[in-house]
Amino acid sequence: MTKSFDRRSGLAFIIAFGIVSLFADSAYEGMRGINGEFLGSLGASGLVVGVVAGAGELFGYLIRLVSGRIAQKTGLYWPMAIFGYALAMAAVPLMAFAFNWQTAALFVVLERSGKAIRSPATNTMQSRAGDVIGQGWAFGLQEALDQTGAIIGPLITAYILAKHGDFHAAYAWLGVPALLTVTSVIVMALRYAYAGQIRETRKHVPRDYSRAFWWYAASAAMLGFVFADFSLIAFHLLKAGVVAASTVPIYYAIAMGASGAGALVFGRWFDSRGLVVLIPAAFIGAAATPLAFLGASGVALAGVILWGLAIGVQNALMSASVAKLVPEAMRAQVASAMEGACASRHHARAVQCRGNLAIQRALLHWPKGERSAGAVRCWAAGKASTWNDLCHSGFRACRGNHTDRASALVPAPL
């Protein structure tokens, strides 16, 4: 008989995984907070910085499309989690040995790929605990601990840069939380081995997804359309002289603090109200883009805070939505399908990557006074698509009883 969580063990598991995420985010968010500046120091242009950041995310989404299916078919949830963490954490200190932007770009892609390998597996295992304590609370609490590490990492790099002015030394110090991450996830795999023993349902196995599911997947992709990657924001802040190089990681740490707080608040709200809470979250994120590119340090900081808040809410609620509305045995595959929808040529992510690069590249080269108008036009275009998709998916999935909400996102039966 497969062992399952009770409320006490479920909460303990989420907190333990949150500690793993704290170490992991200290490493890779510390890395991501300075990637844009580091690539620029190695001779990369604004376009290259945007392409590298976009390529890392694109690889990540495509790998998720496969890794979730593999985890579900093989049941190797813990091995995939450990391998993914190990790959991502190895890439962080290896940045200390990058002396041209091409090598650095490779490590950026490897870090994103490692996260993509482990995410469907870890999210599925955490959702089992969420079944007991509430999905919004589970993923919100995990995200809050996750973002605590995302505050620590950038502060580490900010201190090293302020003291030594050496990017390579900053990346080397991030090897400490990277090692703690791999060690702690191995300990968790031994302590909570049953978390990876997912019950497989073989009856009425679906072959295709419902129309409502694809509306929901499209809305998830559109939510990202108006987001600038922080590497590009950091590149802009530095090149435009908005803040000093040592201040950029501090901005990132503040954003991660807002991210954790937003995940906790919206996670609790999600458990009581459902998918409808994604709508205000979308508008919070949309406001970040024009503010981040306005030029003044105070306004840019406001944009960065909203950016972090929206990222935290999106990370927590997207995972919680799938976990709440999809049967346990199908969560890894469905989560992968949603991520794949963000990168597939059949869905909006491909357009998002090209559109963001073109729009954001143009904004970087416009005079400061014109960046606001351009950013607002970007906001308006993204909002039109996002609002339309959310109206079709969010409200439809929130209507009726739990069974109706579940059927909205579960793939259509044969």
Write a structural description.
- Mean pLDDT is 76; it is low at 344-364 and 368-414.
- The chain is globular, with a radius of gyration of 20 Å.
- The longest helix has 35 residues, at 7-41.
- The protein is mostly helical.
- The chain has helices at residues 7-41, 46-74, 77-94, 101-133, 135-164, 167-173, 175-191, 211-223, 230-239, 248-273, 278-292, 297-325, 331-341, 349-365, 368-398, 402-409.
- The chain is built from 16 helices and no strands.
Structural Rg: 20 Å
Largest sheet: none
Poorly predicted residue ranges = 344-364, 368-414
Q: Approximately how much beta-strand content do the residues carry?
A: under 5%
* Span of the ends, CA to CA: 29 Å
Overall outline: globular
Helix-strand pattern:
HHHHHHHHHHHHHHHH
User: Overall pLDDT, averaged?
Assistant: 76
Helix % is: over 70%
| Global structural class | mainly alpha
Query: What is the number of strand segments?
Result: 0
Short description:
The chain has 414 residues and is mainly alpha-helical. Helices cover 79% and strands 0% of the residues. It contains 16 helices and no strands.
Layout of SSEs?
Elements: H1 7-41, H2 46-74, H3 77-94, H4 101-133, H5 135-164, H6 167-173, H7 175-191, H8 211-223, H9 230-239, H10 248-273, H11 278-292, H12 297-325, H13 331-341, H14 349-365, H15 368-398, H16 402-409
Features of the shown structure:
single chain, globular, 414 residues, mainly alpha
